[in-house]
Amino acid sequence: MKKIILITGSSRGIGAATALLAAKEGYAVAVNYYADKTAADAIVSRIVESGGSAVAIQADISQPDDIVRLFSETDRLLGRLDALVNNAGILERQMRLIDMDAARLSRIFMANVIGQFLCAQEAIKRMSTKHGGNGGSIVNVSSLAARTGSPNEYLDYAASKGALDTFTLGLSKEVAGEGIRVNAVRPAFIYTDIHAAGGEPNRVERLKDSIPMQRGGSAEEVAEAILWLVSEKSSYTTGSFIEISGGK
């Protein structure tokens, strides 16, 4: 029996790379997407053509009802969940706090924090040994911004990732006795299209000379760390963070 993994926001970027690697390592993959069905279907096709198993499921992680449906569909199409990667998240245009409105802050925290809480809640219902599950793994995709604060650019995004870090630590202790490990990765300076959402598609190029390794990272490099944390290779690791940021 293949283990089953659900990766939120996996039609592109880090999520897509993680879906492809998970399938290569033998997981059946639930590829969640928000709007781009074509991109999600393309990831599923690549997995299936390589002999793997995957399904695409639309859901908006900022909507509680969508989250419940996402997990129900994963149950129906693939079976009982073994791993969750909380990857979905949003970034809005670069600006200082003084220019941010409450609506923007609400969008950021619904998509980047509350959605992750609710996804983890649904995963625990399925994986916890207290609820008849076999245990499992949750990996949260945070950011180096949780440490730096991203002043003058993405203070709200950074704060949401800081909340995700605290959530990782607390939840890891809460469910450690139920067979569930909870860890996180903190990527930064990764070549994905999230930077375009912030208004600066070439942000990594602008900053790469300040990175000790003198280059940006790839989504595949982040995926490798995520899959290590998901797998039994990290069986004694919980409440931990891996930074993938070129030494920054």
Please give a quick description of this structure.
The protein is of the alpha/beta class and 248 residues long. It has nine helices and seven strands. The chain has helices spanning 13-24, 37-49, 64-77, 102-127, 145-148, 155-175, 194-197, 203-207, 219-230, and strands at residues 4-7, 28-33, 53-58, 83-86, 136-141, 180-187, 241-244.
Care to describe what's here?
The protein has 248 residues and is α/β, with parallel strands linked by helices. The chain has one domain: 3-Layer(aba) Sandwich (Rossmann fold). 45% of the residues lie in helices and 15% in strands. It has a 7-stranded parallel β-sheet, with helices on both faces. Helix 1 runs parallel beside helix 2 (37-49), helix 1 (13-24) crosses helix 9 (219-230) and helix 4 (102-127) runs parallel beside helix 6. It is globular. The protein starts with a strand and ends with a strand. The mean pLDDT is 95. Keywords: Oxidoreductase. It comes from Parapedobacter indicus. GO terms for molecular function: oxidoreductase activity, acting on CH-OH group of donors.
List keywords for this structure.
seven-stranded parallel sheet; alpha/beta; 9 helices; 15% strand; single chain; 248 residues; Rossmann fold; globular
